[in-house]
Amino acid sequence: MPTINVALQRLSVVSSRPFDEIVRRLMGTIGRPDITAFHDAMESATTVADLEKVVQGAIGSSGLMEFVRFDAGEVLRKERNGPTPRILRLVVGNPLLMKEMATVVPDAAAYAPVTILVDERSDGVHLSYDSMASLLAPYGSPTALAVASDLDTKVVALLETAAQ
Predict the structure, then answer these.
(1) d(C-alpha 151, C-alpha 111), whole Å
(2) Is 92:30 a contact under the CB 8 Å cutoff?
(3) CA-to-CA distance for 36 and 76, rounded, in angstroms?
(4) Which residues does residue 93 pair with via DSSP β-bridges, in sequence order?
(5) Are 91 and 114 in contact (CB under 8 A)?
(6) Is there a contact between 77 and 85 (Cβ–Cβ < 8 Å)?
(7) What is the DSSP letter of 63?
(8) Per-residue pLDDT of the chain (164 residues; tens, 9 = 90+)
């Protein structure tokens, strides 16, 4: 079985803003479609133009949409019987961007959509993201890397804005 080693770059920003405010600021620009209706509409699309219309209707001003969220802190809060820690994993993306990357690097579909991790620590709320460009770098595709770098720029701007 062939193996590809990936040198992952995790990008993080720390904010003094409250956890709930950070999440609210993030979600203000990320689309939150009814995921079942979204999938149904994607399946019903018969042309690329139809598909693009469905995606454009689902994404927020950041160009991203939420696919799912996981409250990873819930298990820890139950164990500790308290209100902390709060850890939220947001799985976000844009199917059109994934398509552009996966067209030339099929493995890109294993990395997209991406994760934004929001976790509360003693020094503030950390917003973390694993760089898509770092994940795709070993594949050597300039086309995929250009799309990945653009995605990285969008996500980092989103995190920085939410943290300010």
Answers:
(1) 12
(2) yes
(3) 29
(4) 65
(5) yes
(6) yes
(7) S
(8) 989 899 999 999 999 999 999 999 999 999 999 999 999 999 999 999 999 999 999 999 999 999 999 998 888 888 887 777 899 999 999 999 999 999 999 999 999 999 999 999 999 999 999 999 999 999 999 999 999 999 999 999 999 999 99
Angle at 122 between CA 81 and CA 125, to 5 degrees: 95
What does the block give as tokens for 102? 């996966």
Of 115, 119, 116, the closest CA to residue 85 belongs to 119
Tokens of 60: 């927020």
Residue type (1 letter), 62: S
Q: Which two tokens stand for residue 130?
A: 């694993």
* Radius of gyration, CA atoms only, the chain: 17
DSSP 3: -
Token output for 146: 């250009």
The DSSP letter of residue 110 is G
